[in-house]
Amino acid sequence: MADAPTLKLVTPVPGAPVRRARPSRAGARARRVISIGGGKGGIGKSLVAVNLAIELARRGERVMLVDADLGGANLHTCLGIDLPRRTLSDFIERRAKRIEEIVTPTGIPNLGLISGAMDHLDAANPKYAQKMRLMRNIQALDVDHVILDLGAGTHLNVLDFFLVSDHGVLVLVPEPTAVENVYRFVKAAFWRRVRNVVAVYGFEALLRSVMGEGTFKSPVEIVAALSARNPDAGLILSRQLEAFRPRLIVNQARTPQDADIGNAVVAAWRKFFGLEMDYLGHIQYDEDMWRTVRARRPLLVQSPSSPAARSFAQIADRLAALDAAQARSEGAP
Length: 333
Hints:
Layout: E1 32-37, H1 45-58, E2 63-68, H2 75-79, H3 88-92, E3 103-105, E4 111-114, H4 128-139, E5 145-150, H5 156-163, E6 167-172, H6 176-201, H7 204-211, H8 219-229, H9 231-243, E7 247-253, H10 256-273, E8 278-284, H11 287-294, H12 299-302, H13 307-329
Parallel strand pairs: 1-5, 1-6, 2-4, 2-5, 6-7, 7-8
Antiparallel strand pairs: 3-4
Helix pairs in contact: 1-13, 5-6, 6-9, 7-8, 8-9
């Protein structure tokens, strides 16, 4: 069997900063896992995933795109390459022992692709053990960033991929239905996280008892009631609330009012749920985006100086700023 393709740090486009290649590390893991979701189809999640990945790769970061839309993979089309010979189906069904064996070169320096499962219906709904194995291997990839393109809806597989990420990014377009779907998605993800936490720590019965005592307006009130009954359980859940902090991108913004929808969503989430969310910015509506889609060429390759392309640079900057702030708070060197 031929060796699996590897990502080597090569000189990116002119003007982009270059980092020195680092040797592979035993037990290494992806420095950041970024998932792109939103709960609704047709809002440009795949385009956001592809172009954000290219923007990071142009900066000298080693990036792996993973098509986590199991059963509906299309990232290879967005990248303008043929359907990969090996996909996640091969890894899920153990025809490939290592996830590195199914990496497809994209032709873009520093960027590899793991294509989603398309050829087997069962692969779209992996069993729990299969899903955990897939998540562990994705997290263990020796790259700087893994970007997961999630499927539509609030299925448990989608929510679990979103929750395992360092940055869970929600995409919406300035339409009422898309905004409603973002709220539905983030609420579903939050409660999925709560259920996972109480199951791990074994206080499901306690939480059910607290929830049965009355109506709560926000998770903060639930934590207060839980803390009154069991301070340790309240502290654990409170820390999980603080860690659950989705990011938001508004796609196809035509007007300043469209762009400001992101701030409105963040404010509403804080008001009604008592939780924080970060607005990464908007992607300006750009005819070049749709022309490049029809041409099967990524925007940042075909029209790198277009207004929409510049938006991805700003979003990447904001993600980097969040990473830097977290490193400072953790006392990293």
